[in-house]
Each structure stands twice: as structure tokens, then as C-alpha cells.
Amino acid sequence: MTNKPIAVVLLSGGLDSATSAAIAIDHGYEVIALSLQYGQRHQRELEAAKTVAHDLGITQHYVMDVNMAQWGGSSLTDNALSLPQSGVDPTLIPSTYVPGRNTVFIALALSLAEAKGATAIYLGINAVDYSGYPDCRPEYLQAYQTLANLSSKVGIEGKSPQLVAPLIEKTKVDIVKKAVSLGVPISKTWSCYQGKENPCGLCDSCRIRDRALIEAGYPHLATAKGREMQS
């Protein structure tokens, strides 16, 4: 570790969390990455998280097992449920919502941050171009900050880590452009809900990502299916 302030970054392996990690580094933090094995369908995003951490020069990377698949409730963790592939409906919360996922993840990040003396936790959540998850909204983050301030020794001392979501009000196109400017290895990130050899280009996450990559001027980074649908 250096004398830089420390930030914990929740690193899923996707574009948003990788960009958030790069922003934390750009802000002058020594970053500790935390990735979660929560019972998701595949390991591709965790493999991507390890690659991204390496490429960004993050030397401390924790991977924890918190198996939320045991009780189901989401098509991301339950193979008996089908993944939506018909497009994003902004009026509905899709079956890919994992009950309590961000609440659990941030709690673990707060524990790690307090143990390591981190002053910030960077999150890749986004409330603009996303799938309508309730735990990606500004009001959710504000409420969680209140909880963080009340639930720990450092919080009682007035030194609670700040929850930072630098992308929360950015469009996906903005995020792509920021990722490029900071040298995020976009091609090595993984956002697809499926764990095949190549991204499917049909799930909500692929559709949102592909559209942004194409609109931002980087169609070569989009899936073949995404380029086909946008042409």
C-alpha cells in the first residue's frame, strides 16, 4: 500500500464497475477490489473482474462466496427461470433482479472498508440506462449512506466511508466515453447474462451495452447481433 487514501470498489467484471474502478484510481485512490460469487449462472464476469483488476493495476482483489442462488428468486441465479431476451421494458423490473443483491454487496464492502481504513466505496450503479433495478437509484444510495453512518465504529466517530456512485446519473454512452478516456479494457469486460463463449447480444445487458457502444462510435466493440439489430 502507498500513502494514498484507500477506496473499496465493488468490481463485477462489467463495463460500469470497471469504469468506476478506473475513476477511483483517477481520483487518486489506492483501490481494493471486491468481487462476489453470489450463485450467478456463470463465472465469466468473475474471470473478467480478475483481468480488469490486473490491467488497472489493482493488486488487492478479494473474491467472496455469498451464495444467494440457494433461495432462487432471480433468473440470474436460477437456471429454471428463462433469461429475458425480448428487449428492455423500462416500466417493469425484470426477472434478472436479484433480491437484496446490492444491499448485501454494499454491506460487505462497508465491512472491508472499515477493516482496511478505506474512506470511500465506489459503486458502478446507474439509474439512467439500466434495467429498472430498485437498488440502483439515488434515493437508495442516500438511505444506505445514512445506514453506513449509523452502523459502524467509524460511522459513530464521524469517519464513515462515503458511498460514491460516479456513474449513477450518466447515460451508457457517457460511460463508454469515460471508460475509453481512462483506458478501461472494454473488450475484456463481461456484461452478458449468459456465460457462453461470446456475449449473446440479446439479453437486456447486452442490448444496453451494444447500443451505447455503437452510439459512442465504437461498433467494433459491440456484439455481432448488436450491430445487426442497430443497422
Can you describe this structure in just a few lines?
This protein is α/β, with parallel strands linked by helices and 231 residues long. The chain has helices spanning 15-26, 44-55, 101-116, 138-150, 153-156, 172-181, 204-215, 224-230, and strands spanning 6-10, 30-37, 60-65, 120-122, 162-164. It has a five-stranded parallel β-sheet, with helices on both faces.
Folded structure, characterized:
The protein has 231 residues and is α/β, with parallel strands linked by helices. 37% of the residues lie in helices and 11% in strands. The protein has 8 helices and 5 strands, in the order E-H-E-H-E-H-E-H-H-E-H-H-H. The protein has helices at residues 15-26, 44-55, 101-116, 138-150, 153-156, 172-181, 204-215, 224-230; strands spanning 6-10, 30-37, 60-65, 120-122, 162-164. A 5-stranded parallel sheet has the order 3-2-1-4-5, with helices on both faces. Helix 1 crosses helix 6 (172-181) and helix 6 crosses helix 7. The longest helix has 16 residues, at 101-116. The mean pLDDT is 93.
Any chance you could write out the topology, listing elements then pairs?
Blueprint: E1 6-10, H1 15-26, E2 30-37, H2 44-55, E3 60-65, H3 101-116, E4 120-122, H4 138-150, H5 153-156, E5 162-164, H6 172-181, H7 204-215, H8 224-230
Helix pairs in contact: 1-6, 6-7
